[in-house]
Design a protein that fits this description.
Structural class: alpha+beta
Distance between the termini: 44 Å
CATH topology: Arc Repressor Mutant, subunit A
Radius of gyration: 14 Å
Largest sheet: 3 strands, antiparallel
Strand order of the largest sheet: 1-3-2
Oligomer: single chain
Shape: globular
CATH superfamily: Winged helix-like DNA-binding domain superfamily/Winged helix DNA-binding domain
Number of helices: 4
Helix content: 40-55%
Strand content: 25-35%
Number of domains: 1
Order of helices and strands: HEHHEEH
């Protein structure tokens, strides 16, 4: 079979994070992910968020536009994600405690 496998460790870890966060946007998920799990690029996190939406493991909760001063302009679009209907989170005490410490 060609291409990337349907299952992914990175995507499963993102599902674990969303299970305890409830919802989160891409950059926030990437920051927390890299604190808890082995380092991955933001590009990889965003890829797996998009792929998770396609596989219905992750769904888009809402999209907000936020004003500010950024290097690319004055607006940023934040997509908030939460668990989709096909998500299968594993209840991990380690991840639960680390998310609680980082989100305070």
């Amino acid at each position: 079979m060609r291409g990337r496998p349907v299952k992914s460790t990175i995507r499963q870890n993102i599902i674990e994070l969303l299970y305890y966060l409830g919802k989160g946007y891409g950059y926030q998920i990437a920051k927390i992910y890299n604190e808890i799990f082995p380092q991955v690029t933001q590009r990889s996190i965003y890829y797996h968020l998009r792929k998770g939406v396609l596989t219905r493991e992750i769904s888009v909760h809402k999209i907000e536009q936020e004003k500010g001063v950024y290097s690319w302009g004055q607006m940023v679009e934040k997509k908030y994600y939460h668990l989709g209907k096909n998500a299968d989170p594993k209840d991990s005490e380690r991840v639960k405690e680390l998310v609680r410490k980082l989100v305070r």
